[in-house]
Amino acid sequence: MKIVVCIKQVPGSNRVSFDPITHNLVREGMAGRMNPFDENAIEAAVRLREQVGGEVVLLSMGPDATKETLHDGMAMGADSAYLLSSRAFAGSDTLATGYILAQAIRKIGAIDLILFGRQAVDADTGQVGPIVATELDLPQATFAEKIQPLDAQHVVVNRDLGAVTQTVQLTLPAVITVRAEANQPRYESPVAIQQSLTKPLTTWTDQDLTLDASRIGQAGSPTIVRKVYAPEPTTRAAKPLPQDPKEAAKALLDILQAQGLL
Amino acid sequence: MITKDALWIVAEFEGTRIAPVTLQLLTKARAIANGRTVAAVLLETPAQTGEETLAQYGPDEIIVAQDEAFQNASDRTQAEQLTALIKANQPNTILFGATPEGRSLAPRVQDQLETGLTADCLDFYYEQDLLVAVKPSYGDNVMCEIVCPDRRPQMASVRPNTFAAKKATGAARIERVDATAAADSACVMQKTAVKIAATTSLSGARKIIALGRGANKDAVIEGVRKVADKLGASVGVSRPLTDRPDFTAEQQIGQSGVTVSPDLILNLGISGAVQYQVGMSSSKLVISVNRDSKAPIMVQSDYVWTGDAAALVAALQDLL
Ligand SMILES: Cc1cc2nc3c(=O)[nH]c(=O)nc-3n(C[C@H](O)[C@H](O)[C@H](O)COP(=O)(O)OP(=O)(O)OC[C@H]3O[C@@H](n4cnc5c(N)ncnc54)[C@H](O)[C@@H]3O)c2cc1C
Ligand SMILES: Nc1ncnc2c1ncn2[C@@H]1O[C@H](COP(=O)(O)O)[C@@H](O)[C@H]1O
């Protein structure tokens, strides 16, 4: 089974603050790390390969520093990696990103399964997986908590959709997005890290792919982030209840009574 | 005739009933529509009759495609059906619930239309024709305003329980359309199960008692369950308490849990971290108990009591 896992490098921390003078976003812990859900996707891919054989190929679009994250993924057991890196890709929103990844997947070729994390923890959209599936006209199972290989053409996936769970049988090739509940990603052993340094990592620019220039980068991104700001903490009256617990409890019930909540 | 340039809400079923988020979106859409037609779009099987519920929340139109094919239809089938309807009727704006289902369908539709989609919004409004979608990022630590100036339709998914649903009068025109999407042989449903009885789920609760690390004692929890029973309240928790065997992630309030907007929330021993706060900030009446009068939760509350949560729970038990 030839599996592509799409992974994204995200900021090392979600702790962000605002520069009081410029009002610009200041990110702490600038070093990037792998999107945590993508670790689950790699783990799922490696386990499938352990069960039925094949290969696991990583794919990421991002700046040169993303190579580190791709090496981390190879240390988790992936066999090879592709980095899509070009100035022409800058400013891509989820639509443009999905299109570019889909074109790269076409070029890699002969893919059985494409795995994604459930969502990236920076913007929290979870859109890229379904967009790639649609670009390639493939079936999808999002929010997967279990993936079982059935035969050379099929996998069975349990989806957890919150209020309902589903078991679906997908005909390959197919797209799956993976929940954190699917598995416990393995630790990278020193040996695995050593081996990852010799695994093939290929960089492709926009020149290496067949791309419609109007669908990539800023031109291919219909959405614009026009403002970023710190959420305003809601403040309320904070009226104190009486200090004595019995009186406080009584006062609380009186409030509920008055508001028709009893 | 289906009205062009309308504001569409894609309706969703939760089990056999219409999902609460659909009704919440209808109410909010009516409030901001400013003369624009509000329509609910419903894909259902002949056994389902979601239009009756939808009509009670005041859409101008309900567009219904009824077909046996929607029984266990794949994401691809549903997205193709929606895309065909959108291409034929050119709505201005399309809103989905940011449920797992909505978040699976919306991007497929988006890609077929090559337009913009903003995920998991907490608010949205119009500036003339432009939809401004307000969404959190970086784990709810920042807010972003996102717009789609040049392409239509403009699309967004909206976090459940961010708005309250209110019934409304007015006659909805029902527009029946033919289902056109083919069944998907590459994605076959083998089994589907409703996980939680929708009525007992936290997200729809009108009264909630929420427990945090400061109330993490068996005796307090037992007392709270009794008080909750008497008050007809559901019990929710902050993240640390989901480590206990008696609570699951389904009961966690907050950014990575459920968003709630009950009439009453009573917070016991919760500090009020931003990730918790976003999950409950639209509650009507907020009462919080914390032994630290400076805990961030206090200024987010209508009434506060500074002291030991155990003592207040005991006093409530005595009175009820
Ligand atoms: C990406 C991300 C997502 C997250 N998502 C969520 C989420 O969805 N939901 C969530 O809840 N958290 C979430 N968190 C965690 C969140 O940041 C907080 O750590 C968490 O909400 C703290 O829970 P708490 O208030 O119960 O505990 P604490 O912060 O430890 O607060 C306990 C409070 O209890 C008070 N107290 C102690 N003893 C008593 C007593 N005897 N009587 C009265 N008061 C007492 C203390 O004064 C304190 O204020 C998330 C974090 C991250 C990074
Ligand atoms: N730039 C990228 N390169 C590779 N994969 C990506 C990229 N952005 C998103 N993904 C994949 O898409 C998933 C969902 O991301 P998002 O839609 O941004 O929340 C991630 O978990 C990754 O698997």
TrEMBL record, chain A:
InterPro entries per record: ETF_a/b_N, ETF_b, ETF_beta_N, Rossmann-like_a/b/a_fold
Limits of the Electron transfer flavoprotein alpha/beta-subunit N-terminal domain: 22-213
PANTHER family in the record: ELECTRON TRANSFER FLAVOPROTEIN BETA-SUBUNIT (PTHR21294), PROTEIN FIXA (PTHR21294:SF17)
Protein name stated in the entry: Electron transfer flavoprotein small subunit
Organism in which the protein naturally occurs: Lacticaseibacillus hegangensis
UniProtKB/TrEMBL annotation, chain B:
UniProt xrefs under InterPro entries: DHS-like_NAD/FAD-binding_dom, ETF_a/b_N, ETF_a/FixB, ETF_alpha_N, ETF_asu_C, Rossmann-like_a/b/a_fold
Pfam families: ETF, ETF_alpha
Domain Electron transfer flavoprotein alpha/beta-subunit N-terminal as annotated: residue spans: 6-191
Similarity annotation: Belongs to the ETF alpha-subunit/FixB family.
UniProt name for this protein: Electron transfer flavoprotein subunit alpha/FixB family protein
Species name: Lacticaseibacillus hegangensis
